[in-house]
Amino acid sequence: MTDYKDPREEDIVYGDRRISRPDVQLPDWDIPDGSYRPVPIVWFTGALFAQIFLTGFLFLVLIGKSGWLTIALTAMSSGAIGAWTWQRGMGKAGMGWRVATVLMLLFWFALFAFAAASRT
């Protein structure tokens, strides 16, 4: 056990770990807020990044193909990302988060669909 200067008996807990006031503080190794708690901003951001990268990837890969194919695959990928986000927990989030997520997915789909429309 580590020697502390003038330790009080109640200061030493858990072997050589020291806390100053065991009645009001947690041990130094316990982080109560350090566990993962999913929140809507995480789901929203995940959907945003997935939408941007996947639709951008589809747009570039299908650059020489029909615009209708690009629009169809982009629509399907947007729907899949939306379903994935809802399964992750967005379906139980507040109305504002759900509306923002749908609008974001629609915006990025429309952006790439309009760009691909010139190839139809």
Any overview of this molecule?
The protein has two domains: 1-35, no CATH class; 40-117, no CATH class. The chain is mainly alpha-helical and 120 residues long. Strands 1-2 form a two-stranded antiparallel ribbon. It has helices at 40-61, 67-88, 95-117, and strands at residues 12-13, 17-18. It is elongated and about 80 Å long. 56% of the residues lie in helices and 3% in strands. The termini are far apart. Helix 1 (40-61) packs parallel to helix 3 (95-117) and helix 2 (67-88) runs antiparallel to helix 3 (95-117). The mean pLDDT is 83. The protein contains three helices and two strands, in the order ββααα.
Instruction: Determine Rg (CA atoms, Å).
Output: 26 Å
Spatially, the strands of the biggest sheet line up as: 1-2
How large a portion of the residues is in β-strands, by DSSP E? under 5%
In the residues, how many domains can be counted?
2
Low-confidence stretches: none
| Residue share in helix | 55-70%
Coarse structural class: mainly alpha
Q: What is the quaternary state of this protein?
A: single chain
Q: Per the principal axes of the C-alpha atoms, what is the gross shape?
A: elongated
Please tally the β strands and state the result.
2
Element order, helices and strands? EEHHH
Q: What is the residue-mean pLDDT, rounded to a whole number?
A: 83
Distance between the termini: 76 Å
Total helical segments: 3
Main β sheet profile: 2 strands, antiparallel
